């Protein structure tokens, strides 16, 4: 039944995913720490109305944050993502196992648990679909991390993390590395599903 949790100024370096098990939480204060990333599990805090993350070490926000449908206030000032946006991120080439797994998944190669070792069956079950609608591919461990800027309230653009299966899939999202004026048109289809009233206050400065 906890509704307010203040963890500011504690030199916290990571947010425990277990916080997502507080369904009644409305106000979460994590400011003035050393937090570098937000666990996607926080998107399960459907009652959350205020999230204070200012004065941390955040360089991006996970896309799942858009699922916080009742969030009204998001404080981000004093984070690297506010003063310098991360655009170019490294890509590690896929291993032979990943290449084989991608082929099995994308070409729908039939297999049964009796055909493969249990570890490979488990590995194949972990395939993630590439979000690029023009690709239709999958990835396992090797992916391209790319920042996409999403418009909130028509005034601020928040950097959200996307995971693509290869560098070639970055073209539909290339607006992330262009000026904000050219982004609006290419992003509009994605952002149309995000209601403007979901984020009433985005505190970036």
Automatic annotation (TrEMBL):
Chain intervals for the UniProt region annotation (Disordered): 173-195
Listed Pfam families: LRR_8
Gene Ontology cellular component list: cytoplasm
Record-linked SUPFAM superfamilies: L domain-like
Bias kind Low complexity: ranges: 173-185
Keyword tags: Leucine-rich repeat, Repeat
Alphabetized PANTHER family for the sequence: PTHR48051, RAS SUPPRESSOR PROTEIN 1 (PTHR48051:SF1)
Name of the protein in question: LRC58 protein
Protein source organism: Sclerurus mexicanus
């Amino acid at each position: 039944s906890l509704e307010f949790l203040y963890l500011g100024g504690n030199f916290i370096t990571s947010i425990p995913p277990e916080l997502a098990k507080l369904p009644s939480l409305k106000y979460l204060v994590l400011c003035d720490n050393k937090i570098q990333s937000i666990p996607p599990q926080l998107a399960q805090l459907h009652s959350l109305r205020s999230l204070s993350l200012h004065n941390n070490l955040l360089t991006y926000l996970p896309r799942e944050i858009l699922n916080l449908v009742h969030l009204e206030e998001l404080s981000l000032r004093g984070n690297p993502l506010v003063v310098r946006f991360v655009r170019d991120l490294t890509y590690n080439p896929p291993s032979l196992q990943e290449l084989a797994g991608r082929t099995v998944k994308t070409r729908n190669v039939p297999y049964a648990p009796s055909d493969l070792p249990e570890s490979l069956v488990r590995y194949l079950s972990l395939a993630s679909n590439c979000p690029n609608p023009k690709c239709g591919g999958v990835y396992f461990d090797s992916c391209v991390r790319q920042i996409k800027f999403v418009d909130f309230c028509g005034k601020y653009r928040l950097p959200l993390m996307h995971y693509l299966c290869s560098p070639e899939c970055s073209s539909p999202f290339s607006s992330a590395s262009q000026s904000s004026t050219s982004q609006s048109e290419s992003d509009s289809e994605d952002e149309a599903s995000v209601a403007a009233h979901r984020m009433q206050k985005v505190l970036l400065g």
